[in-house]
Design goal:
The protein is mainly beta. It is built from 2 helices and 27 strands.
């Protein structure tokens, strides 16, 4: 939010919708500039805590962390040794308290930690994977995502230089090996990138993207243990670009995209191998979509105003407007 054409006056914001309530509240962790972006993941044994990392910006060269178990009313803090990579899935937590983060150094540096948020151990870098057995089978160019399966297996996602390979790696017998699915025929001749990981109930879904001569193509592949995968049909976005991805209800995943002409479209895949269903247009300026029991919200930001549009009987209705106090110039 803020003045989006001015990086130092663009401030990422966090909003919280408590279970059983109808209105969003501003919950951005205090005292840290959010101009470098925020990267959030659920945490805690029941997934009822939120862990947020801040991207580095201006003179900030490392990433502060904040965790809350009460919807942002209070936060515990920590830090990473350097800056988070600007990726959708650069931070993840397992139910047993283990953490994994993707930093920007050396084609993507992977570190692991635990509760306390300030003690981290180096695991592997994209540069190391590129020369390892598992990485060579994909021709790893860069680590692009980190995550866990529902059973707690660490997963890495990569951009591959070898066409037709899904760069999902897991640690096996002391090394990192490709464990991802076979890509559909539409991606066989394209270099594939793991855009991010999403938890859909008891499934972990990897969003795969191939960018060929006819535009962007998306495939969602889901697993429970990192060994056996099922994949959705391909979703062809053409010249449109991804705006947001995330969980819908149950095992569903949504993809929000925008065309070069500014037309925004929402598609949802139902089930680990379900077809994509176009859910129609969303309100102009929608940044992301939130699905809850019996409701779908489109969140649209303009300068310092957030508008919550709620889908009712196939029509979007304005449900809430939040004016966010933004301190312009505070990060300069």
């Amino acid at each position: 939010m803020g003045h989006l054409h001015q990086p130092l006056n663009t401030f990422w914001q966090l909003f919280h919708l408590a279970a059983g309530t109808a209105r969003w509240t501003l919950a951005t962790p205090p005292s840290v500039a959010s101009t470098g972006g925020m990267y959030a993941t659920t945490a805690g044994p029941a997934g009822d805590s939120l862990l947020v990392g801040f991207g580095p910006s201006n003179l900030l060269r490392f990433s502060p962390l904040a965790e809350s178990a009460n919807g942002g009313s209070s936060w515990s803090t920590g830090f990473l040794p350097s800056g988070l990579a600007p990726r959708a899935s650069s931070l993840a937590a397992a139910s047993d308290g283990r953490l994994i983060a993707l930093l920007s150094a050396d084609q993507g540096e992977v570190v692991t930690g635990s509760v306390g948020l300030s003690s981290w151990a180096a695991q592997v870098t994209g540069g190391q994977l590129a020369t390892a057995t598992g990485g060579r089978s994909c021709l790893v160019k860069e680590v692009t995502a980190v995550g866990f399966t529902a059973s707690g297996q660490e997963l890495l996602g990569a951009a591959c230089g070898r066409p037709g390979v899904a760069g999902i790696l897991a640690e096996r017998d002391g090394g990192w090996l490709i464990v991802g699915p076979q890509v559909p025929s539409v991606l066989r001749d394209e270099a594939v990138t793991v855009v991010g990981f999403e938890h859909l109930g008891d499934l972990t879904t990897a969003v795969l993207a191939g960018e060929g001569s006819d535009g962007l193509t998306i495939v969602a592949s889901s697993t429970t243990n990192g060994n056996h995968w099922s994949s959705s049909p391909s979703l062809h976005l053409g010249s449109s670009f991804l705006t947001s991805i995330g969980p819908a209800m149950g095992h569903s995943l949504f993809v929000l995209s925008e065309s070069r002409a500014g037309q925004e479209n929402l598609e949802v895949t139902h089930g680990p191998a379900g077809s994509w269903i176009q859910d129609g247009d969303v309100p102009a300026g929608t940044s992301t979509v939130a699905f809850g029991p019996g409701r779908v919200d489109a969140l649209a930001a303009h300068d310092s105003t957030l508008t919550d549009w709620r889908l009712q009987s196939g029509t979007w209705h304005e449900a809430q407007v939040i004016d966010v106090p933004i301190q312009y110039g505070s990060s300069a």
